[in-house]
Structures are given as C-alpha cells and as structure tokens.
Amino acid sequence: MRRLIRFIRNLALLLIAAIVILAGVLVFNVVKHGSRQIQVAAIPRVAIDAQAVAARLSEAIRFRTISSHEKPDQHAEALRGMQAHIEKSFPAFHAAAKREIVGQYSLLYTWEGSDHKMPPIALLAHQDVVPVAPGTEKDWQQPPFDGVIADGFIWGRGSWDDKGNLYSMLEAAETMTKGGFRPKRTIYFAFGHDEETAGTAGAKAIAALLASRGVRLDFVVDEGLLITEGMIKGLDKSAALIGVAEKGYASLVLSAQATPGHSSMPPRDTAIGMLSAALARLEDHRLPMHIRGTVAEMFDTLAPEMNGFNRVVLSNLWLFKPLLLREFEKNGPSEATIRTTTALTIFHAATRTTCCPATPKPPSTSA
Ligand SMILES: [Zn+2]
C-alpha cells in the first residue's frame, strides 16, 4: 500500500514537473518572439479636399467598365468615358507625365524621373470590374454602379477593387505635381483594362511594350490585400496583409463513359455513378496542409502582436500546429492559405431522364 502511495506521489510530481517545464518552454517562446514592427514616426498628414476626392471616385464607379472574355469591346464607351474623366480630374499630372494607350483601352503613364541612373518602378491598378451576377441586384446594400457616398463609405463595384487604388495613386500624383514634386526615378503607372479576365490584352501588352523598350523595373506594386481591423482572431491591432505572390491553379476535366441504355433497364454502372464516386473521393481526400513559406512568416510576424492564448499558440507552433491547422481548415479563405484547395465547379451529364441520347454517340459525363 505504502509503495503504491509512493508510486502515485512520484507520478504526480513527475507530471507537475512536466507541466512546469512545458509552461516554461511556452512562456520562453512567447518572450523570445519579440515584435518585428519597426517604429517609424508618422509623417504629417497632407491636407486634401476629402469631399472632392470622394466625389471623383464616386463618379469613376458610375462608368460600367465591366470586362468580358466573350465581348472585349462591349464596354468600350465606359472605358473611354472613365479615361476622359481621369484626364479631366488630374490635369497637373497629365501635364507632367506622358500618357499612352496600349492594347486599345489600357493606360500607361510615364512620369519621368530626374535621375536616369536609378532603375524605374511601376505602380499598377486596373480599370475594369467584374459584372454583377444576374438576380443578385437586390442583395446589394447600395446599387453597384451609382457610386453612392453614405455612412463614411464610397459604395459600388470597383470602389475597392480596383478603382480605389487607381484613383488614389492619381490623387497622390496630382497633389505632388501641384506641389512642385518631380520623382528622382521614373515611375510608370500601368492601368490595365481586362485584369478580371486574365489581363492578356492589357497588362501583358504593357509588359511586352516595356520589355521591347529595354525597361527593367526595380519593383512593381500592384493591388494587394486589406488593412484588416478585427478580422484576425486574437489581434486587436490592425494588420496590413501584403500579397507577395498569387496562387496558381490547374483545371482538370474528368470524364466517364458507360454503355448507353434505357433507364428502365440501366447498366450496372452508370457514367454518373462512377464519376460521382471519383468526385466524392476528391472531396474526401484533400491535399495536405502546411505552414511554410510566406504563411509561416506571416504567423511569425503576427505572433508577438497577438493577445492571450492566441499569442501562445502562434509562438509555439511546434506544439499547437495541428490545433491551428484544424481551426484554419474550417473556412474557405483561411483554408486556402494552408493547402492547395480542390473545388468541383462544372458538371455536365445527360439531358434526358429516360431514354436514348439525342445524338448517336454514347452519353458522356464530365466534371
Ligand atoms: Zn482587382
């Protein structure tokens, strides 16, 4: 009996020691993980006419510059209209920079620098927007193309993606030009018109044009992510998410064929059944999750800024990684940061419920 008590006591002591050591390691990692933020004094605010700036973006939203794969010219008038609006809105910048039209509707501005030895840079934005899905108009809090200014926001398609960027850059350039500023290095402003449909006529043509002129850019700044406020669990501060790359993708077509026949006497295996089994397996066997590369760096940077238990978790991924991955797996946007995602998007099958395909070839099912 006494032996048993001693054994239990020793076991309890061992357990306590293990907990203390573990807690020590967790705390050590939290403390070791200091903030990476560089303290920089804020520059004085530039006086701007906020109402006029907002009004210009609001007007820009009213041009329905929707890009389309099928009919690239269908919104030519809207693009031309917005370009005229840009020209009228930023006269000082237009006097200082050279403007070129590339690929019919894209804009390339060259703001010549004073030091030609310095490599140039390019600031990018796009003029086009995506269409509004038919039937969803009533779901909009404000109409998509009215440019309503209400509740401290400018509402509408493109207010954020990406006319907001485009106009902000030009507002800055206009203000700076008026103040007598001339850049040291040459700055290109490249504004494509078909970014939402792959950018082959706009951005690609601009890149080819610059390459043909032997231009080598030092860096490019394109539209990116948000400055989030309260979007990241456990982070009270705002966080600027910087997109340093874009995920690639591959589209695969799966197809199955089976013996055609009347649905009253179906074959044992139907094409739909076989393909459905394959697709269900794809959904059930997702690609592995990882925390590496830029995502690992993001967690590393965020960890010391977190509060409470979240800070302990992010500072001790050696222990909590499975917990974090499970949490991230729960919703689409966060899941996309930790794995290659799989999405089943289009499904074609037979068009009749009973018999005989309309065409003589056997029915095929693809997804
Ligand atoms: Zn965009």
The count of DSSP E runs of length 2 or more, i.e. the number of strands, is: 11
How far apart the termini lie comes to 69 Å
Major sheet, described briefly? 5 strands, mixed
Query: What is the ordering of alpha helices and beta strands?
Result: HHHHEEEEEHEHEEEEHHHHHE
Structure description:
The protein is an alpha+beta fold. It folds into three domains: 50-223, Zn peptidases (Aminopeptidase, 3-Layer(aba) Sandwich), CATH 3.40.630.10; 228-247 and 287-338, no CATH class; 255-285 and 345-366, no CATH class. Helices cover 38% and strands 11% of the residues. Bound molecules: zinc ion.
What attributes characterize this protein structure?
367 residues; alpha+beta; Aminopeptidase; 5-stranded mixed beta sheet; two-stranded antiparallel ribbon; 11 helices; 11 strands; disordered C terminus; binds zinc ion
Task: Annotate the secondary structure layout.
Layout: H1 2-32, H2 50-61, H3 76-89, H4 91-96, E1 98-102, E2 106-111, E3 121-126, E4 149-150, E5 153-154, H5 163-178, E6 187-192, H6 203-212, E7 220-221, E8 227-228, E9 239-240, E10 255-257, H7 271-284, H8 293-302, H9 308-315, H10 317-329, H11 332-338, E11 364-366
Parallel strand pairs: 3-6, 3-7
Antiparallel strand pairs: 1-2, 2-6, 4-5, 8-9, 10-11
Helix pairs in contact: 2-5
The structure holds zinc ion.
Residues 126, 161-162, 195, 223 line the site of zinc ion.
